[in-house]
Amino acid sequence: EVATAVSKGDFTRSIAVEASSEVGTLRNTINNMITNLKDSTQSMAKVKEAAESASIVKSQFLANMSHEIRTPMHGIIGFTELALDTDLTPEQREYLELV
After folding, report:
1. Contact 83, 98 (CB under 8 A)
2. How far apart are CA 46 and CA 81, in angstroms?
3. DSSP string covering 15-36
4. Cβ atoms 2, 15 nearer than 8 A
5. What does the DSSP assignment read for 30-84?
6. Among residues of the chain, what percentage have pLDDT more than 70?
7. At what angle do helices 90-98 and 21-84 cross, to 10 degrees?
8. pTM score > 0.90 for this model?
9. How does residue 18 score in pLDDT terms, banded at 50, 70 and 90?
10. What radius of gyration do the chain's Cα atoms show?
């Protein structure tokens, strides 16, 4: 009954058999394992939440940086195209065509 509950994530259960010697040691060991599983599960949930938050922040940062880079680049490309429509020396045209 306890094993089934624990396997489904219910870490509130523990073995309550009163016993001494080997059976008591087994009970204590299993109850300690249940406690460790509970602690590990809670810790992993916190780590997962932190990782998800970091991922959201990273995505927002990249979206903002992409916008901040694209906007001036569109201006540079537009002005370069306008400059290419003017009288230029061959050297100037070569440089602008590189852009």
Report:
1. no
2. 52
3. ------HHHHHHHHHHHHHHHH
4. yes
5. HHHHHHHHHHHHHHHHHHHHHHHHHHHHHHHHHHHHHHHHHHHHHHHHHHHHHHH
6. 100
7. 160
8. no
9. confident
10. 33
